[in-house]
Amino acid sequence: MDSRIRALEAYLVAAARTGDRGAMGRLVDLRGDRLRAHAVRLLGDREGARDVVQDAWVEILRGLGNLRDDHAFLPWALRIVTRRVARDIRRRQSGRRLADAWAEEAETSVDEAGPAASDGARVRAAIATLPRDQAATIALFYLEDMSVGEVSTALDVPVGTVKTRLMHARRKLRSVLEGDDDDR
């Protein structure tokens, strides 16, 4: 991740901690899209993710005083979003079959990523076929350029779990992407 953005983020966190509303707004502008994308990856529902992230921002801004390292803001905020998503999923599970709907959508995404699609689109479509925990882990590690430790913090799982998820996800992605190449 760009060191200038990290420095800006740390400055905004410190300023927001003092009650600077402008810094709070800039922090939301700076990291809101990433938190929302993470929630969408975990939840599979854009509207639900928007609501979860909105609630998470309240918790994030109130909890800034508990953040020990201003440079660790993004993984810390992602962990709050992860926990909020988990609560939302537990609440929704009683009447829904989210996994089935998400799997159908992921299969459609891979089918639509034909030979003319860019490599990035093919990889993103392949990531969409992964189980949610693996998709979130891969996305944070590769797309968000986080370290294994930061992914561990963001997903609130042990480092070993992150490594295992990465291993399984890479294997599945290789299989999906090589299978697409064989069809050409």
UniProtKB/TrEMBL annotation:
Every RNA polymerase sigma factor 70 region 4 type domain range: 122-173
Biological process per Gene Ontology, one example term: DNA-templated transcription initiation
Claim: Transcription regulation is one of the keywords in the record: yes
GO molecular function: DNA binding; sigma factor activity
Keywords: DNA-binding, Sigma factor, Transcription, Transcription regulation
Domain (RNA polymerase sigma-70 region): residue spans on this chain: 30-93
CDD domains attached to this UniProt entry: Sigma70_r4
InterPro entries to which the protein is assigned, alphabetical: RNA_pol_sigma-70-like, RNA_pol_sigma-70_dom, RNA_pol_sigma70_r2, RNA_pol_sigma70_r4_t2, RNA_pol_sigma_r2, RNA_pol_sigma_r3/r4-like, WH-like_DNA-bd_sf
Transmembrane segments: none
Protein family (similarity comment): Belongs to the sigma-70 factor family. ECF subfamily.
Record's protein name: Sigma-70 family RNA polymerase sigma factor
Native species: Maritimibacter harenae
Species lineage: Bacteria, Pseudomonadati, Pseudomonadota, Alphaproteobacteria, Rhodobacterales
